[in-house]
């Protein structure tokens, strides 16, 4: 009876998104001096820090196949001497959307349809194309990079603008980049379909086997830095996660290297129960006015309190390797000493749980109105520049792959959605629009007419499904 009762309770909720994933331990070594930007001990030259990284797809459930066209999540926990720093990023430099309000809708659109319970290209493309800020990310996902050959063969990024502050409490804005040392390799739709038919855990197996045979994957770590002054004058919102910072203007600064070198002993204990949150930072690393990031600061811990329980930070894979004095008490599955007889309130005359003003980040001056700014028809906000720039640097064979992947993926959708996307492609680059229109069998004159409308007009004209 006990065996059955335990078995009946073995399954825990999967992550709402990024449910299918694989993890490995490693080390992060800082090879360059960036102390003028940050006082974080984990980022000081010569420091070596133990890490745990989990790779994931986004849309598929826990049993989904690895080689789907999707972005890949990459979350790394750095067990630093000042507590855990989690960098929870993706294998793309930007994201689809920039407003927290849209986040659950994005996932509902790419996941299952409420009526059929099936994935739906119509829902997916309808949502993506109604928000023009998705355009750059759509271009990346439909490109050859949409299905990596392995986790080892892709870059990854923090995506958001974070901040760094140094020993004098001087702040700069920063983006994190991890560049694969294994080289970029991708799969075509045909290769991926074949692999998915044979081995749904292909990327996990590749990572596991490489580490088992001592072929440790490595990534060079870089930052981009923007001063507060530069940010005030920047021509785009530097805190908009759908925008890139051009490398020519904000060059990559080398920091160090991440190596993955040890497989977990137990998948459930270490990978399924891993809990990452962008809210975990250490002194010297901070947040920014990116309101999408601010939404994430709440969402992860909240999801983990549901998925793993209120004491999820006590699960060994999530525990800091140094003493961390959060003063949470009690709660389900509190299986350590629960701080014994120490006072449970703060402030107290015993002088414990006292705040540490020395780890506070510098105050942030804010300006402007707090409101639901929706810049889609703002002429200074160009949602298509980065997608157009990407199109123009692609070689001819990569352009052909992008067009054929897009036409294939959008094929099941109604015409209105295809026209909406074609108008966006045309706005990004005439050639991009012309070639997509041709591949999708659309009337180019109509695409050009639609591309001249404002975003609101375009959405109204293309909201009623046509045959
Ligand atoms: C407002 C926007 C977002 C919200 C509300 C959000 C929320 C969440 C939640 C609730 C989870 C599941 C956490 C868990 O159960 O442990 C998750 C997982 C994840 N998210 Fe996000 N997310 C957002 C945007 C992003 C962005 C922009 C990135 C990349 C830069 C990202 C990367 C990831 C990754 C990699 C995971 C999987 C972590 C793991 O391996 O355990 N998310 N997200």
Describe this entry's structure for a reader.
It is a single chain. Strands 1, 2, 3, 4, 5, 6, 7, 8, 9 and 10 form a ten-stranded antiparallel sheet that branches. The longest helix is centred in the middle third of the chain and has 17 residues, at 291-307. This protein folds into two domains: 13-119 and 148-318, Catalase core domain (Catalase HpII,  Chain A, domain 1, Beta Barrel); 382-461, no CATH class. The chain is built from 15 helices and ten strands. By secondary structure, the chain is α+β, with helices and mostly antiparallel strands. It binds protoporphyrin IX containing FE. Residues 15-18, 21, 54, 56, 73-75, 88-90, 95, 100, 103, 159, 241, 274-276, 292, 295-296, 299-300, 303-304, 307 line the site of protoporphyrin IX containing FE.
What pattern of helices and strands is seen along the backbone? HEEEEHHHEEEHHEHEHEHHHHHHH
- What is the overall number of helices? 15
The hetero molecules present are: protoporphyrin IX containing FE
Report the β-strand fraction as a percent range. Answer: 15-25%
- Which whole number gives the mean pLDDT? 95
Rounded radius of gyration (Å): 23 Å
- Global geometry: globular
Classified in CATH, the superfamily of the largest domain is Catalase core domain
Overall number of domains: 2
CATH second-level architecture of the largest domain: Beta Barrel
Task: Predict the CATH topology of the largest domain.
Answer: Catalase HpII,  Chain A, domain 1
**What percent of residues adopt helix (DSSP H or I)?**
25-40%
Main beta-sheet strand count, sense and barrel state: 10 strands, antiparallel
Query: What is the distance, rounded to the nearest whole angstrom, between the alpha carbons of the first and last residues?
Result: 58 Å
How many E strands? 10
Q: Report the structural category.
A: alpha+beta
CATH class of the largest domain: Mainly Beta
Low-pLDDT parts are none
